[in-house]
Write a structure and sequence with these properties.
Order of helices and strands: HEHEHEHEHEHEHEHEH
Shape: globular
Radius of gyration: 17 Å
Distance between the termini: 26 Å
Mean pLDDT: 92
Largest sheet: 8 strands, parallel
Length: 243
């Protein structure tokens, strides 16, 4: 009988998060609808995702290929899945095969992955996939993502050479203890300015995916259009289930 109680807590937590998102958006002069909330469900069971689906949420994210290819086929097809983080080239085909409703990939960080994604999508005959360029704004050697100075080059490559990908913006993952906040957000904002100038697009055409459980309100106040919320909605992670 413990599972229903946990699922109820998750639904309540989601409502609280959405309320906080709305207030943060209003403080930045925007509406709640201007900010997408990706409920990141890594290590969590399908039953919890289903619970949030049943209260109206449709956007979910996963970090591990094995998890998303196991979960997605068990859930409704109108879910908008985001794959968040590094993707190995040899797992591209498995991801696209199992998750036809993959809405966005956050985020590509090298030309090899973008080329493989572009080619695989063409072979599958599916509609173009939205992608965000991952930028390593905290300068951690252990972190994936392009150097901020290289963000323009990768965005250009996607627009000019990957017709099956839709360059949709930039994303960043700050330090686990959030000590890189808000500097990493400022860096991503600067990258957006340079990318928009180089590509001849408006800022509204370049999303900013920044902000997680510990700093999403500040991220929204600084212009984030996409926040990735995991433990604040689902509770602590159980990494013994990591795939």
């Amino acid at each position: 009988m413990a599972a229903p109680a946990a699922e109820g807590v998750a639904a309540t937590a989601l409502r609280a998060v959405l309320h906080r998102v709305r207030l943060a958006a209003e403080r930045s002069g925007r509406r709640a609808d201007d900010v997408r909330v990706v409920a990141v469900s890594k290590t969590k069971p399908v039953s919890l995702i289903d619970q949030l689906y049943n209260v109206g949420h449709r956007c979910f994210g996963e970090n591990y290929v094995q998890e998303i290819i196991e979960k997605a086929p068990q859930l409704p097809e109108d879910i908008e899945w985001h794959f968040v983080g590094h993707l190995q080239s040899n797992k591209v085909k498995a991801l696209l095969t199992a998750v036809p409703n993959l809405a966005m990939f956050e985020g590509v960080d090298n030309e090899k992955v973008t080329n493989n994604l572009d080619r695989a999508i063409s072979n599958f005959g599916r509609h173009p996939l939205k992608v965000l360029v991952q930028v390593n704004t905290s300068g951690e050697v252990s972190k994936f993502g392009v150097n901020p100075l290289e963000s323009v080059d990768l965005a250009k490559h996607i627009m000019l050479h990957c017709p099956n990908l839709v360059f949709s913006g930039l994303m960043t993952i700050g330090m686990p203890d959030y000590t890189s906040t808000p500097e990493n957000f400022k860096t991503l904002l600067n990258c957006r300015t340079e990318v928009c100038k180089a590509l001849g697009i408006t800022e509204s055409q370049c999303e900013l995916s920044m902000g997680m459980s510990g700093d999403f309100e500040q991220a929204i106040e600084m212009g984030s259009t996409n926040v990735r919320i995991g433990s604040t909605i689902f509770g602590p992670r159980d990494y013994s289930k990591k795939k």
